[in-house]
Amino acid sequence: MRGMIGYLDVLWEAIMATAVVFLADGFEEVEALTPVDYLRRAKVCVKTVAVPTAAMKQENLVVSSHLVPVVADLTFAEFEKEFSVSDESSLPDLVFLPGGMPGSKNLGDNEKVIAFVKKCFESGKYVSAICAAPAVALSKTGALKGRKWTCFPEMNKDVSADLVKDSTFVESPFVTDGNVITGRGAGAAEQFAMELVRLLCGKETADFLKEKTVQR
């Protein structure tokens, strides 16, 4: 078994990838922060972004569906200065939409978030969402058309048929189809997060991270 030094060597050998995680009031903590945690352990540069809602008291403070306050890395104004749909070189390698309600709806209602995710998708970047977010937010980008995907049980039935045209719904903890990754819910957050690690950092890094975090 390789020691911790070997483990860190493997991680640092990976090219520094970037990820943007949008957080809106009402997000689900386990679904949002498990991927943030594991991606950061894998040395991915993760930026959490506070998406504005009417109830926000501070530009960078987002409150989860279970009333847990989280300070985001970036306000939305700061995010717009760092990342732009008009500058493809600024796009992250991955963008992630957590689930939870009304968090997912707040993401789906924000036209700038949807436009950014759509641009990432069309540029071949990884776009990902879990629980309610695939149905409520990601579907609005057109990324699910013709793809295999999953979401929280039964929520797929509420999506307009034109938004998921020619797609295939799969009852699985997570589904990867090309550059689109979707997850089922909080109970699948670890598996979902590790799939993001694998895609961005490679199987070897994912295997070491799985071992060192004593995953099931």
Which terms summarize this structure?
single chain, 216 residues, two-stranded antiparallel sheet
State the distance separating the first and last CA atoms.
18 Å
Structural class: alpha/beta
Overall pLDDT confidence: 94
Number of helices: 8
Radius of gyration: 16 Å
Could you give the order of the helices and strands?
HEHEEEHEHHEHEEEEHH
Low-confidence stretches: none
- Give the overall silhouette: globular
Summarize the amount of helix as a percent range.
25-40%
**What is the β-strand count?**
10
Largest sheet: 6 strands, mixed
- Percentage of residues in DSSP E strands: 15-25%
Biggest sheet, spatial arrangement of strands: 2-1-5-6-10-9
Tell me what the structure shows.
With 216 residues, the chain is of the alpha/beta class. The chain is built from eight helices and ten strands. It has helices at residues 4-13, 29-41, 76-82, 103-108, 111-122, 133-136, 189-201, 203-212, and strands spanning 18-23, 45-50, 61-63, 69-71, 94-97, 126-130, 148-149, 168-169, 174-177, 180-183. The strands form three sheets. Strands 2-1-5-6-10-9 form a six-stranded mixed beta sheet. The protein has a two-stranded antiparallel sheet with strand order 3-4. Strand 9 and strand 10 form a beta hairpin. Helix 2 (29-41) packs parallel to helix 7 (189-201). The longest helix is centred in the first third of the chain and has 13 residues, at 29-41. It is globular. The mean pLDDT is 94.
